[in-house]
Design the sequence.
């Protein structure tokens, strides 16, 4: 009778892996969806702020000075000179997204610039360039940014007294490790928590409330098997399946990271973590899944149907999401041990610590032990529920 | 004769929900489903619980199968108490009811092995028993078809076979022929008689007179949760048919003609 737990685990696996559609929708699909979605999002974000490479900006300029004309000749722009009388009409065209930019220079801009002394800024107004643009038009917006940048550079050039970081030296002394740690410890604990929770959510209600709804769990309960074996067997098998689903989402995220981060990704590298870091991470994730599945199983066992269970899970889901977001707001994981007794929060902070290279091994141990204790308590509760006729049959 | 099942003063009360109270136009908060029920069944006999719907037959059988716990009293099945040793009881009995469903996804073959494992049946014993039972009920050719794709009758047969994987000495069967077509019903009643011949003790509940007459040695008539009469079938039907006798008793107890 001791191996009844294994019998249950085996059955859950045969049930799950024997159903190709189920494997596809719970294990492969989440990772695939995240990969496709994030890749598209990454590209979408870039497209929104950048125009295509051969785009020629349509620009009108009033009183175009010699200096500016020379600058514009090197840019992908088509400049048309215009008069003050037409200004309103051109502004109208920009508002309607038919033109990109209108530059209005003061008359004799170059002479005015040369005569201006920035030491007298208090008493004398500096020559002013007005740029009319439309921030909702991608072309107009990037023309505006391009021009602002160009004229800022020009201005700096005119009054060049000193330079900052102009040499070939590598001035940012943050290592690849630091940058990766900062970015990953902010993003990944939150994403991981959400993926693990939704992975478990996809299977636990179905396996417990579903069996109850279909009347198949009663068939198990008339066998001499111990309720605790049934509870643990369910929790262990569902945890493994939930873990697979969570890992799939994780892999999808990591693969889509390059296009998500565009240029920044070359400074991020998952290879800065040691095998110990990954082992810690895996242990934390494993026990986290156990707690999540155990909690979801207890809620599901109380519910009469899968639908009811899904609704009943919502409050817990919101709590877990809120806790997950704390990794984005705190500066490094807390060092006090008692924080690591709080379920879910301890997992998020441990992952935060591992990714940010700030974890204390003692706190990881506390997290692992307390997660296992919570799982056992919840499994005991689940066994009690399986033994309660009021919840199981009425 | 050796006592195999001794039920003593068994009782079960359910709490009525507000909705049910309204539905039944009553202010009672409690409903007594089984009221101090006592009876004894002997080894090798078929005992029938006869009663109308809602008499408490199913509740009694569920208590004996340890799916629900009695509020009072106890029953001893082959030496094990349903209150103190429910796990032991579960390993000794085979409980059959249409409420116990099989997972649609699995095949009869897989489920037979799975439940054999849960009951601790040795693989060698299991294979021989499975072959025999599958052949007996014509399941062999459907052994690898998912339960969800089987006909209703075949599902019932598979359920029956699977509840007997551990070859129990005591079989508790709630409404054995309910919802079955005449052919399957006959297969089931014939099988019950066969089991009796093999020396098994069988407890069935039903409201069908002909089934009682066909298979039972002794009968207990339950009305409103109470055992009104418990005797040998031959004694009950000495003067009148079972049907006439039942309605006579019903009239005396409830006080209204049917």
Sequence:
């Amino acid at each position: 009778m001791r191996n009844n737990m294994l019998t249950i685990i085996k059955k859950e696996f045969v049930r799950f892996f024997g159903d190709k559609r189920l494997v596809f929708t719970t294990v492969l699909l989440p990772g695939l969806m995240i990969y496709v979605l994030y890749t598209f999002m990454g590209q979408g974000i870039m497209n929104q702020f950048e125009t295509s490479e051969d785009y020629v900006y349509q620009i009108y300029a009033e009183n175009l000075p010699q200096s500016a004309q020379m600058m514009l000749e090197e840019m992908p722009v088509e400049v048309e000179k215009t008069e003050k009388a037409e200004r309103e009409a051109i502004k109208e065209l920009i508002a309607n997204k038919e033109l990109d930019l209108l530059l209005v220079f003061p008359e004799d801009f170059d002479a005015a610039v040369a005569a201006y002394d920035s030491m007298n800024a208090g008493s004398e107004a500096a020559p002013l360039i007005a740029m009319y643009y439309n921030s909702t038009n991608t072309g107009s917006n990037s023309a505006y940014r391009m021009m602002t940048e160009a004229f800022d550079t020009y201005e700096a050039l005119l009054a060049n007294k000193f330079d900052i970081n102009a040499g070939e030296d590598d001035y940012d002394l943050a290592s690849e490790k630091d940058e990766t740690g900062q970015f990953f410890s902010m993003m990944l604990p939150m994403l991981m928590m959400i993926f693990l929770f939704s992975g478990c959510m996809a299977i636990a209600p179905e396996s417990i409330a579903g069996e109850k709804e279909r009347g198949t769990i009663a068939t198990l309960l008339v066998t001499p098997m111990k309720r605790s074996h049934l509870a643990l067997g369910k929790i262990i098998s569902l945890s493994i399946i939930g873990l697979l689903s969570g890992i799939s989402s994780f892999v999808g995220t990591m693969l889509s990271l390059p296009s998500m981060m565009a240029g920044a990704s070359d400074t991020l590298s998952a290879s800065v973590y040691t095998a110990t870091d990954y082992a810690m991470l895996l242990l934390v994730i494993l026990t986290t899944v156990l707690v999540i599945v155990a909690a979801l199983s207890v809620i599901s066992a109380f519910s009469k149907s899968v639908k009811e269970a899904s609704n009943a899970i919502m409050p817990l889901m919101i709590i877990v999401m809120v806790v997950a977001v704390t990794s984005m707001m705190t500066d490094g994981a807390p060092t006090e041990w008692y924080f690591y007794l709080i379920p879910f929060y301890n997992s998020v902070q441990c992952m935060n610590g591992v990714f940010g290279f700030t974890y204390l091994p003692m706190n990881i141990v506390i997290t692992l032990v307390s997660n296992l204790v919570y799982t056992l308590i919840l499994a005991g509760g689940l066994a009690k529920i399986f033994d309660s006729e009021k919840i199981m049959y009425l | 004769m050796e006592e195999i099942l001794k039920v003593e003063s068994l009782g079960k009360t359910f709490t009525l929900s507000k909705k049910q109270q309204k539905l039944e136009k009553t202010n009672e908060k409690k409903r007594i489903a089984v009221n101090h029920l006592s009876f004894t069944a002997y080894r090798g006999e078929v005992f029938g619980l006869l009663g109308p719907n809602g008499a408490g037959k199913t509740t009694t059988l569920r208590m004996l199968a340890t799916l629900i716990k009695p509020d009072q009293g106890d029953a001893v099945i082959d030496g094990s108490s349903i209150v103190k040793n429910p796990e032991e009881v579960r390993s000794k009995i085979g409980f059959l009811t249409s409420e116990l469903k099989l997972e649609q996804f699995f095949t009869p073959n897989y489920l037979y092995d799975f439940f054999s494992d849960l009951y601790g049946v040795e693989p060698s014993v299991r294979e021989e028993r499975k072959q025999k039972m599958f052949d007996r009920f014509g399941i062999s050719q459907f052994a690898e078809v998912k339960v969800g794709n089987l006909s209703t009758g075949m599902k019932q047969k598979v359920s029956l076979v699977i509840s007997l994987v551990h070859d129990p000495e005591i079989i508790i069967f709630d409404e054995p022929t309910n919802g079955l077509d005449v052919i399957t019903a006959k297969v089931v009643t014939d099988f019950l008689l066969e089991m009796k011949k093999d020396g098994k003790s069988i407890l069935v509940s039903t409201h069908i007179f002909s089934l009682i007459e066909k298979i039972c040695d002794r009968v207990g008539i339950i009305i409103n949760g109470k055992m009104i009469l418990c005797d040998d079938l031959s004694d009950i039907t000495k003067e009148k048919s079972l049907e006439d006798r039942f309605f006579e008793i019903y009239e005396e107890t409830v006080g209204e003609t049917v």
In short: Residues 57-158 of chain A form a domain with the D-Maltodextrin-Binding Protein; domain 2 fold (CATH 3.40.190).
